[in-house]
């Protein structure tokens, strides 16, 4: 049996100049809708009360998954963008490009009764997801897990963060300079 969300993600994935590109999913309403349904389905029976996403693709996917689950959305901002109110912040360990990011979340967006799901397009090192998990827990909420389109992380990271991906990176077509 095939998974429609997985199939949509794979059929809309492409390599551009050696870089992975999932933006075609966002341009196709049927693909976007199917992928969002698939991401939501991975946690629909887990008692999720809020979805968070890291800007920029995480904002788009996270808000859509929040609507699909019938819960609210919590924004996680990077660096210097305007974000009023008291914040919880974390400086991430280096990501796959060896960059460190400062992530910020409004403290008032978290409550003691929340079970928060992080949604993003891709996870590799888990550095940003681990930072968000720490922020969620500092805010008094419970971590629900992480739903992603492409999972490229290690098994230990996958278990620690409860990562559920539609596609494993090893399933993606191999990049070729001929394309």
Automatic annotation (TrEMBL):
GO terms for molecular function: glycosyltransferase activity. Residues 29-156 form the Phosphoribosyltransferase domain. The keyword Protein transport does not apply. Pfam families: Pribosyltran. Keywords: Glycosyltransferase, Purine salvage, Transferase. InterPro entries: PRTase-like, PRTase_dom, Pur/Pyrimidine_PRTase. This is Phosphoribosyltransferase family protein. It comes from Streptomyces gottesmaniae. The lineage of its organism: Bacteria, Bacillati, Actinomycetota, Actinomycetes, Kitasatosporales.
């Amino acid at each position: 049996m095939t998974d429609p969300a997985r199939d949509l993600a794979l059929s809309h994935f492409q390599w551009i100049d050696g870089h992975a590109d999932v933006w075609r999913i966002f341009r196709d309403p049927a693909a976007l809708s199917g992928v969002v349904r698939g991401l939501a389905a991975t946690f629909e029976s887990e008692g999720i009360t809020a979805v968070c996403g890291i800007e920029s693709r995480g904002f788009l996917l996270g808000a859509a998954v929040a609507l699909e689950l019938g819960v609210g959305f919590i924004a996680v901002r990077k660096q210097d963008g305007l974000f009023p109110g008291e914040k919880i912040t974390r400086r991430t360990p280096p990501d796959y490009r060896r960059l460190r990011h400062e992530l910020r979340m409004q403290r008032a967006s978290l409550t003691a009764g929340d079970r928060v799901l992080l949604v993003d397009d891709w996870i590799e090192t888990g550095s940003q997801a681990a930072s968000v998990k720490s922020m969620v827990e500092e805010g008094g909420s419970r971590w629900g897990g992480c739903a992603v389109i492409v999972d490229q992380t290690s098994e230990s990271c996958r278990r620690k963060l409860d990562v559920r991906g539609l596609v494993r990176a090893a399933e993606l077509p191999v990049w070729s300079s001929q394309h």
